[in-house]
Amino acid sequence: RMEGQGSYTLPTGTEYRGALRDGMFDGEGELLFPNGGRYRAVWHRGVPTQGKYTFADGLEYKDKKWHYCDGYDRRFYTEICSGLKPAGISQLTNLDPPRKIPEGCYDCGDGFYNPETRVIVDYKFRFLRNADDDEHEWIIRTCRKAWDEATDHRPKP
């Protein structure tokens, strides 16, 4: 079994770096996610006892008094850090410019979803999973879909 300091890469591409004991995460360690996020925690027998998640853009998640993108302040983290765009130019995602979504697909957060094939691929077009009925309905209802026409801002002549 794994013991001491080390790293382990899960089949999803998520990597653990830190202390291992009896084949489990135990002590200080962090999970590094393929999307750039990281979860630093103190682990006990494979279970985190305290930890902090940091998104790829540097935003730190707080489980108490979390005010990011709530009903009172709907700005993205990049808008909080860099300011809002001029009136009439919307920022659709935290990434600016947003990812280009393949035609007919949806951006579901960890990749692109094709409702025809019901397959989710990561942003490098590698297979992640097949969507079940619940995930399919959620994505169709809530996620950003590829546009049929360009919506770039064009100043008046």
UniProtKB/TrEMBL annotation:
User: A GO CC term?
Assistant: motile cilium
Q: Gene3D superfamilies, from UniProt?
A: Histone H3 K4-specific methyltransferase SET7/9 N-terminal domain
Major localization listed first in the record, in broad terms: other
Q: Which UniProt keywords apply?
A: Cell projection, Cilium, Flagellum, Repeat
Q: Name one Pfam family in it.
A: MORN
Q: Does the keyword Repeat apply?
A: yes
Q: What is this protein called?
A: MORN repeat-containing protein 5
Natural source organism: Bucorvus abyssinicus
| Protein's gene | Morn5
